[in-house]
Amino acid sequence: MNSRQKPNSMSWLKSLFQRSARQTPERQRALDLLAAVDAGGLPLNPARVNDIARQLGLDVSAKAPVAETIERIRACSVDWL
């Protein structure tokens, strides 16, 4: 076995034991929202932010500020990464 084959077999073995990086669709939407906000984006549709939060199981008032809802989403997303 030459030295070029070893890393390939090790990476294959590691991939068997690593956790899947896939997220549920709800979590992925939340992560995408947080990434957009962190990149300087501004959510223009508060209903969409509230929908993402509700899909995650958060109880969100329609009158809640968007920034507060985003922080609640951020707080619950810490466990996913």
Helix/strand class: mainly alpha
Head-to-tail CA distance between termini: 37 Å
Query: What integer value in Å does the Rg equal?
Result: 19 Å
Q: What proportion of the residues is helical, as a percent range?
A: 55-70%
Describe this structure in words.
The chain is an all-alpha fold and 81 residues long. The protein has one domain. Helix content is 60%, strand content 0%. The protein is built from 4 helices and no strands. It has helices spanning 5-17, 25-38, 46-55, 66-77. Helix 2 crosses helix 3 (46-55), helix 2 packs across helix 4 and helix 3 runs parallel beside helix 4. It is elongated and about 55 Å long. It starts with a helix and ends with a helix.
Task: Please describe the structure with a list of short key phrases separated by commas or semicolons.
81 residues; mainly alpha; 4 helices; 60% helix; elongated
